[in-house]
Specification:
about 120 residues, Maintenance of Photosystem II under High light 2 C-terminal domain-containing protein, MPH2_C, MPH2, Four Helix Bundle (Hemerythrin (Met), subunit A), mainly alpha, 5 helices
Amino acid sequence: MFNNFHIIKFNGEGYLQDLVYKLSKVGQAIEKNDLSAASSVLGQNTDADWVQKVNSALNKFSGSDEEKSEIDSFNSSLSSLVSSVTKNDIEGSKTAFVASASAFEKWTTLTGLIEELKGL
């Protein structure tokens, strides 16, 4: 259920590839109820360097208000995910993970990048 994300080639855009990888690892950890492993991938807060790089890449490919709205949804759910993992809340982590993955997948559909990210 949580390991549908695979590392794929993304036309040189390493930050979004990194996001797919991280979502895959976090999903696998949550599926095993291993929130310490999920935390080691996510970090302790959403100010992490990797999150800022991912947001830069997301914004680079976003033009419409709807695409930008999905970035906001993704960031909100990612924040909830980090918080739930930090609090050792497995159910909250599962819910927030699904919301994060869904928002990212919707964004890739809206931007037309879904074909580039076949592992979704």
